[in-house]
């Protein structure tokens, strides 16, 4: 039997534009900058300020999930490369979506300010509305480069954006800008990324409003949209509950423990999926059996590493928070110990979803999300009543485990 060789296991490291080393380098640099920014700003500002920013970003996440077109994944997965007319339709759709989200967030800002006990952070919410607008006008040539596995160019764009985000955010935090420093850094980083997609990537779409050719992607992307809507409930409703019932300070502790666990566990797999999705897609188009074997090797490697990391992080949680964030964040340690399990399962799910989308089965991931939602609806009320915020975290973890189990079952069944 022919051996399956993993790109990371070759004796010599390749630096071609499609080499996996660029995904690894991007992951290390980008997540490093994100970690420095959020941990440093979290130590400077404390839980309440981080909670206020989290509410603003929560509004953006909800709006983007409800309007997710799935076009990026459809462009990458499709058998034929889009022509300029189809790219123009993709850009028109994404730009219109970004503008609509921005308007809705600005209109909803006063209500959110009062409902989530932000104490007059109206401008913070309105600033967050600029994020989807800037993202929406980026060039869809980014997805063509992803499809063609141009990981070197993607890494250059993402690392440059992350550096500017970190530098601007920390600069404003140290100068006393408070919670606004987080958003100012993000706005600067997203602006640079959008500019770079137009100046360094091609082909560029025509800059005119046109939806001609967009129907070509609807059949695939509708499942991505459906999955995003379900994932909205799965990924955001717990934060809404914490913010509404307990206020910004508790939300800040909840978010920081989740974010730290995500940076240490899930982000690596999520970033790796940027390599795996187009790679699985390319191999599946040529040899489905080879793609399946490659998937099993990656899944085993990632799952084994995650088990070791979870054990280490649960033991090291308290000194980690004391050293990195300070005494004010120690009440978040029990949550962190739960979230490391949560994020490890999420990392496995990132690999599963990459493979399912690559082989043209995005509906399986959507079905898994529905199963996760059912588990949450059944467990969250009881868990919240009995254990409060830690109960919510455990219920989220149980839902993720159910979703991962379903996807694994379907993949094995299709094999």
Automatic annotation (TrEMBL):
Keyword Cell membrane belongs to the record: yes
TM segment ranges: 48-66, 87-111, 123-145, 166-188, 260-277, 298-316, 336-356, 368-387, 393-412
Subcellular location: Cell membrane
Any matching Pfam family: Polysacc_synt_3
Source taxon at top rank: Bacteria
Keywords of this entry: Cell membrane, Membrane, Transmembrane, Transmembrane helix
Source organism of this protein record: Caballeronia sordidicola (Burkholderia sordidicola)
Topological relation to the membrane, as annotated: Multi-pass membrane protein
Family indicated by similarity: Belongs to the polysaccharide synthase family.
Keyword Transmembrane helix: yes
GO CC terms, sorted: plasma membrane
Coiled coil: none
Protein name: PST family polysaccharide transporter
């Amino acid at each position: 039997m022919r051996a399956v060789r993993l790109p990371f296991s070759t004796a010599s490291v390749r630096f071609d534009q499609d080499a996996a080393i660029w995904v690894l380098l991007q992951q290390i640099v980008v997540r490093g900058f994100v970690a420095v920014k959020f941990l440093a700003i979290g130590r400077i500002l404390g839980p309440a300020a981080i909670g206020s920013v989290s509410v603003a970003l929560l509004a953006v996440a909800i709006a983007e999930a409800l309007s997710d077109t799935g076009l990026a994944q459809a462009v990458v997965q499709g058998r034929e490369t889009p022509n300029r007319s189809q790219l123009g339709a993709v850009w028109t759709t994404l730009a219109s979506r970004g503008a609509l989200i921005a308007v809705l967030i600005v209109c909803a800002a006063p209500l959110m300010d009062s409902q989530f006990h932000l104490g007059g952070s109206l401008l913070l919410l309105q600033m967050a509305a600029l994020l989807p607008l800037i993202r929406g006008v980026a060039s869809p040539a980014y997805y063509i480069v992803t499809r063609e596995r141009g990981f070197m160019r993607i890494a250059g764009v993402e690392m440059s954006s992350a550096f500017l985000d970190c530098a601007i955010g920390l600069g404003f935090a140290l100068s006393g800008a408070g919670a606004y420093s987080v958003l100012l850094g993000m706005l600067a980083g997203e602006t640079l990324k959008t500019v770079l997609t137009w100046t360094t990537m091609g082909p560029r779409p025509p800059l005119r409003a046109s939806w001609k050719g967009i129907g070509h992607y609807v059949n695939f992307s509708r499942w991505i949209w459906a999955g995003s809507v379900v994932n909205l409930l799965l990924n955001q409703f717990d934060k809404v509950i914490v913010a509404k019932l307990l206020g910004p300070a508790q939300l800040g502790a909840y978010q920081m423990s989740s974010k730290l666990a995500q940076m240490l566990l899930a982000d690596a797999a999520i970033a790796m999926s940027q390599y795996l999705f187009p790679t699985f897609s390319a191999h599946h188009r040529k040899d489905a059996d080879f793609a399946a074997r490659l998937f099993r090797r990656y899944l085993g490697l990632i799952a084994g590493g995650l088990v070791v990391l979870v054990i280490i992080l649960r033991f090291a949680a308290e000194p980690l928070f004391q050293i990195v964030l300070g005494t004010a964040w120690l009440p978040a340690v029990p949550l962190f110990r739960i979230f490391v399990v949560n994020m490890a399962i999420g990392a496995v799910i990132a690999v599963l979803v990459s493979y399912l989308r690559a082989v043209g089965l995005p509906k399986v991931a959507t079905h898994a999300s529905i199963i996760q939602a059912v588990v949450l609806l059944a467990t969250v009320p009881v868990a919240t009543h009995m254990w409060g915020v830690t109960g919510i975290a455990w219920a989220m973890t149980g839902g993720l485990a159910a979703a991962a189990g379903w996807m694994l079952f379907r993949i094995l069944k299709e094999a």
